[in-house]
Amino acid sequence: MSLTGLFLCTFLIVHLIGNLQLLINDGGKAFNAYAHFMSNNLFIQVTAKGLYAMILLHAIKGFLMALNNRKAAGGSRYAVSTSKNASWTSRNMALLGSWVFIFIGVHMAHFWRQMKWGELNMMNIDGVMVKNLYEYISVAYENPLIVAFYVISMIMIGAHLWHGFGSAFQTLGINHKKYTPIIDGFGKGFSVIIPGLFAAIPVWMLLT
Ligand code: HEM
Fold it and tell me: Which of 100, 107, 131 to mutate to test the pocket of ligand 1 (most atoms within 8 A of CB)?
């Protein structure tokens, strides 16, 4: 769980850097060129298959762990961490993870499916015709309900990472007097800043 989780965190950084290009005021040129490159590069395509496998592995393992914990507790919902010190996020990792998993499904059915198989308008970038995914996303983010779904989902991801990031290092046995608080602090920052920037994209596109 920890290794797949940390891999998914690195994906989030790469994905965010790509998506931030949606905010460049160039009619979508930079973002469309990026999306075209990503969907035509062999290395990226092979890595993407690994990414889907990691998402599934992480979700299935998490689901089985939650099931086992519940069984071990004789059906009590709070048995995993009855400790009063256990945070809300640590007690609700399965719930948060399920939301994130459903979000990824809906999100891929929406944007990713369009990039792969959608009949989008084309844009000419330096003589190369590329799909105008930027236009499709801009229209989607004019809908406040879609934007709200994204913002709520980013809060869920942030909450999932709030506990998950530090927990991954603990599981890997990295428990150090000096470094663990630094890792935990980094994890908390990561879980606020990365989902925050993701959420800012649809909100910005709705408002501008
Ligand atoms: C504002 C937020 C986001 C935007 C605008 C966005 C946009 C996109 C777009 C346009 C694609 C298809 C592009 C392509 O395949 O080249 C895509 C794919 C994908 N997105 Fe997002 N995304 C956002 C947030 C997220 C988050 C938070 C996650 C994960 C929790 C995520 C997971 C994925 C995955 C797994 C794919 C498929 C990746 C691939 O096949 O390469 N996205 N996203």
Answer: 107
CATH fold of the domain at 2-207: 3 helical TM bundles of succinate and fumarate reductases (1.20.1300)
User: Distance between CA atoms of 184 and 168, rounded to whole angstroms?
Assistant: 10
Please list the pLDDT of the chain residue by residue as tens digits (208 residues).
999 999 999 999 999 999 999 999 999 999 999 999 999 999 999 999 999 999 999 999 999 999 998 888 765 555 554 555 678 998 999 999 999 999 999 999 999 999 999 999 999 999 999 999 999 999 999 999 999 999 999 999 999 999 999 999 999 998 888 999 999 999 999 999 999 999 999 999 999 9
Nearest residue to 97 (alpha-carbon basis) of 40, 11, 159: 159
Q: Give residues (CB < 6 A) around ligand 1.
A: 15, 19, 35, 38-39, 48, 100, 104, 107-108, 111-112, 115, 133, 137, 150, 157, 198, 201-202
Would you list the domain boundaries of the chain?
A: 2-207
**198, 151 Cβ separation under 8 angstroms:** no
